[in-house]
Amino acid sequence: MDQTILRITLMIDLITPGWPAPGHIKALFTTRSGGFSNGVHATFNLGMHVHDTPENVIKNRALLRKYLPGDPHWLRQVHGARHVWIKHGDMQLQEESGDAALSRESNTVCAIMVADCLPVLLCDTAGTIVGAVHAGWRGLAAGIIEQTVAAMQTERNALMAWLGPAIGPAYFEVGEDVRAAFVDSDQRTAAAFEPADSASQSEPKWHADIFQLARYRLAHAGVTRIYGGGVCAYSDPGRFFSYRRDGETGRMAALIWMEKSGEYAK
């Protein structure tokens, strides 16, 4: 193996979710460290749509592939509420539009990309289904979590969720329209919003807690076993990409799959 590739591979910074998922459920969250990209995309950018060179993204995805049982099925994320079922070996030339990936098949990697939006990983206690959700505020307000949970067709008390790094409430300033998108349909979500210093009577501004909003939505969907949350991507530029902080930037990935015994060992 090329020594440069070996050195970079060893420097990849991957986060393993801390949750009581079954042993054959595997999940990872990537950070910005350890790849080939440079400039505003430095260094482990996995997004092909963010004006990084395709060659760098291909090499970064090849590094990630070493930790996975197969190629991830990348989605064309649109901040909506559509889920996509992923089947083993179903690698389409054209990425499907959707903001959640689901699978019941082993060694089939569900993936979503983020740079401030909240990644939510899902599985059941029996380890028969996995899912990855791209939960920005638009998707949360549109019901991406509820629709994904419903599509899993699993007893809600058997489901668990892990919330990955996202923009923290201290930096997620939103307008009254965003607050209204949640509070108008569920008054309890008002607790996830605090007035911002820049607020005025004519133009209210709020600090939104996307982790708390996701917990409300998960609970509304019947999922109460919730882990993770609270890690702010915006405030840690050395480890995480953040669109709100930097504008032009790279993308990180949240990935989950079911390992088939004897076929793959991490």
Explain this structure.
The protein has 266 residues and is α+β, with helices and mostly antiparallel strands. The chain has helices at residues 3-11, 54-65, 137-142, 144-152, 176-183, 210-220, 243-246, and strands spanning 14-15, 25-30, 83-85, 100-103, 110-114, 118-124, 130-135, 159-163, 173-175, 193-195, 205-208, 225-228, 252-258. The strands form three sheets. Strands 3-4-7-6-8-12 form a six-stranded mixed sheet. Strands 1-2-13-5 form a four-stranded antiparallel sheet, with no helix packed on it. Strands 9-11-10 form a three-stranded antiparallel sheet. The two termini are 19 Å apart.
In short:
The chain has helices spanning 3-11, 54-65, 137-142, 144-152, 176-183, 210-220, 243-246, and strands spanning 14-15, 25-30, 83-85, 100-103, 110-114, 118-124, 130-135, 159-163, 173-175, 193-195, 205-208, 225-228, 252-258.
What distinguishing features does this structure have?
single chain; 266 residues; alpha+beta; CNF1/YfiH-like putative cysteine hydrolases; six-stranded mixed β-sheet; four-stranded antiparallel β-sheet; 7 helices; 13 strands; 22% helix; disordered N terminus; disordered C terminus
The proportion of residues forming helix, as a percent range, comes to 10-25%
CATH class: Alpha Beta
CATH superfamily: CNF1/YfiH-like putative cysteine hydrolases
Total number of domains: 1
Residue ranges: pLDDT <50 for 5 or more in a row?
Answer: 1-10, 262-266
The CATH level-2 architecture is identified as: 4-Layer Sandwich
Q: How would a crystallographer describe the biggest sheet?
A: 6 strands, mixed
> Gap between N and C termini, in Å?
19 Å
Could you tell me the strand content as a percent range?
Answer: 15-25%
Rounded to an integer in angstroms, the radius of gyration calculated over CA atoms is: 18 Å
* Secondary-structure element string: HEEHEEEEEHHEEHEEHEHE
Strand order of the largest sheet: 3-4-7-6-8-12
Q: Helical region count?
A: 7
Q: How many strand units?
A: 13
- Mean pLDDT across all residues, rounded? 92
Bulk shape: globular
